[in-house]
Specification:
Layout (H helix, E strand, L loop, with lengths): L1 H13 L12 H4 L13 H17 L5 H11 L15 H13 L3 E2 L2 E2 L8 H8 L10 H4 L6 H11 L6 H6 L18 H7 L1 H14 L9 H6 L5 H28 L5 H18 L7 H9 L4
Antiparallel strand pairs: 1-2
Helix pairs in contact: 3-5, 3-6, 8-13, 10-11, 11-14, 13-14
The structure holds zinc ion.
Zinc ion (ZN) binds next to loops.
């Protein structure tokens, strides 16, 4: 389980088998469902427990299997399954099954699995084991919209968790003495500065507003975009995806400045964002769009 988890973690952060740096987000958060702020990666440890839970269910429901009859005859000897405790001489594997049985005990009533009409499935047991972690994050629909490009989503997800390696965080880790933003050269760089307050970011926003036109007055954070009035749900999501794309390219521009000493002009950045919006729309099924939305996209050169 440790090895499988390490391979998945390394692939996520490095795209290869080995990775030696500290991950930007903990594996526990990554394994949460996307609605709860994670990436929806399966937690192999919990999945393993849920898979063993199937044996627990088979024993509880006295499934017609030779192995179950053998368990009853050799171990249970007519005793109640959920009261049963293995003795010290029992095999390691059997003690593990009994340990999982104790974890699932409160999910059973009169020997019957309480959910899914008494029918246990591994997926169902997995969700049951994690039931405490499922509070929906407010930014779920803006980040995980089908209009967003996966690499922009990943960057937005890091921003929402405050985990981009901005200068304030690098400084805190003792990696650098510098705190100053590379894009404006005047203020300290943290998340709020980079995606909202930096003069470079503000210039990008201004150019985006000018391109969007009348709807563009309210063009700001994803939270603002989801509340924007006098526009369809589709356009709200489209504007939101442009904000998310812009944040990705601002982070890209910041890294180009820091690592390669290259300055990407805001108007070039905005052009790239619009092109990304056009490509995202190409993949979107157009029949979901109203005539008004279609006309707006055509007027902006997105279609
Ligand atoms: Zn700045």
């Amino acid at each position: 389980m440790d090895r499988i988890q390490a391979l998945c973690r390394n692939f996520l952060w490095e795209g290869s088998e080995s990775y030696s740096k500290a991950p930007l987000v903990s594996w526990k958060i990554i394994c949460l469902p996307t609605k709860a702020g994670g990436l929806g990666v399966i937690d192999s440890r919990i999945w393993n427990i849920a898979a063993v839970g199937k044996l627990v269910w088979w024993i509880a429901s006295k499934k017609d299997l030779l192995w179950i009859k053998w368990i009853d005859k050799i171990y249970l000897k007519g005793r109640e399954w959920f009261d049963y405790q293995p003795n010290a001489n029992s095999s390691w594997a059997w003690r593990q099954v009994c340990m999982v049985k104790d974890k699932f005990a409160s999910g059973y009533r009169n020997g019957q699995w309480q959910l899914q009409n008494g029918h246990y499935s591994i997926g169902n047991g997995y969700n049951w084991l994690r039931q405490d972690n499922l509070t929906k994050v407010p930014w779920f629909s803006s980040v995980w919209s089908r209009l967003n490009t996966p690499k922009h989503v990943f960057n937005a997800w890091l921003i929402k968790h405050g985990r981009l390696l901005t200068m304030d965080r690098l400084h805190k880790m003792g990696i650098t003495d510098r705190m100053t933003c590379y894009l404006c050269g005047t203020h300290d760089e943290d998340h709020a500065h980079l995606i909202e307050k930096c003069s470079y970011t503000r210039r990008c926003y201004e150019r985006m507003r000018a391109w969007i036109g009348a709807l563009g007055n309210g063009f700001g954070s994803t939270e603002q975009m989801m509340k924007i009035r006098h526009c369809s749900g589709f356009l709200r999501k489209l504007l939101c995806s442009l904000v998310i794309a812009m944040h990705y390219h601002i982070w890209f521009a910041r890294n180009a400045c820091r690592v390669e000493y290259k300055v990407i002009h805001p108007s070039f950045l905005v052009k790239t964002v619009i092109e990304d919006g056009r490509l995202a729309l190409l993949k979107y099924q157009y029949y979901h769009m109203s005539q008004n939305d279609r006309e707006w996209c055509i007027s902006r050169g997105l279609m």
